[in-house]
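Onboarding guide, step 5: your first structure request.
Type a short instruction followed by the sequence, for example:

Predict the 3D structure of this protein.
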Amino acid sequence: MFNSTHTFVGLALARSGMDRWVPRAAITAVIASNLPDVDIVTALSGTPRYLEIHRGITHSFVAIPALALIVSAAMYIFSENFWKTYLVALLAMYTHPLLDFANTYGLRPFLPWNGTWFYGDLLPIIDPYLDAILLIGILAGEVFKDGKQRLTWLSFGLVLLYAGGRFELRNLATSQLEALAARTPGTEKWAVSPTIMNPLLWEGILESNKEVVKVSIDPIDEMMTEVTRIKSAGPAEIPRQAFASESAMALLSFARFPVLKMQGTDYGYRILIFDFRFYNQGTSTALGTEIVLDRSYQITKETLSFRKMIE
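The system replies with C-alpha cells like these:
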C-alpha cells in the first residue's frame, strides 16, 4: 500500500486508546507502520536491486519483531516503558505486511526460507477511499477531542465494511473470470485486480503460452469486456543470454504475468520483457526491461524501468 495508508493506520491505532496507555504512542506507531519500507534505500543501487529486495525480508514475519525492537529501543528514551512501546510498535508494524498483502503487488512473508510471492488482490496499491475514511476519522477526532477514541473505532468499523464490500466484489469478479478461463483454451494462469477510482469495476488477466488478455469486469452486472490482447513469445524463442542479464533475472523473479517480445535490428536483437500487471494500454507503457544483443548474442545494453513496450 501507499505510505499515506500505512501512516493513517498507524496514527489511528495510536488514537484508539494506545496514546493513553504509553507516551508517544502516535510517533511510535507511525514510524513502525512505515519502517518495513526502509528497503527503499536499495533503489540507490538501481531498479534491479530494488525489485529483488522490496517487499522482501523487511516485510517478513521473522523480521517484523526484530524491527519493532529497534523502534522500541529508540522510543524508550521518550516513553520510559520499553515493553508497552514494543507492543505498540509490533502491532502497528504487523499492519504493514497485512495491507501490502491485500493488493496485487504482493509480498514474500516467509523469507528467508521461502521466497514465494503471495497476493490478496483485494485493494489497489493506492486506495483514496481507504485513506479518506481513516483521515476523516483522524480529523474528526481533532475537532471533537472528547470523542476521539470513539470516532477512531468508528473509522475502523467503516474500514472493515469497505474491505468487506471489496472482498465480496473480488469474489464475484473471481468467479466470473474463472468461468471465462474455463471456456478459454490454453489458459494457464489468471487473476483479478481492483481499480483505483471505481471500486465496482475490476480487471482480469488471462495468460496462455501465446498471449495475455486483460478484461474489464463489472461483477454486479456480470459483464466482461476485453480491454487489450498482446501476443507473447515463448521462453524457447528468446536467446538464453537475455535471461542471464541482471535486469531480466530481477524482473522475471518479480513479474506475475511476464510478456516476452523479440525484435530483429540491423545489429542484432532487441528483447522486451514486461509485467502485464502494470501495463497501461493507453500509453503502451509498463514496468519492463529492454535487452539489446549483438549478432553473437552478447548483451550490449540493458535497462529496467517504466517504459513504452509496444510500438
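Each response can be followed by summary notes, for example: The longest strand covers residues 285-294.
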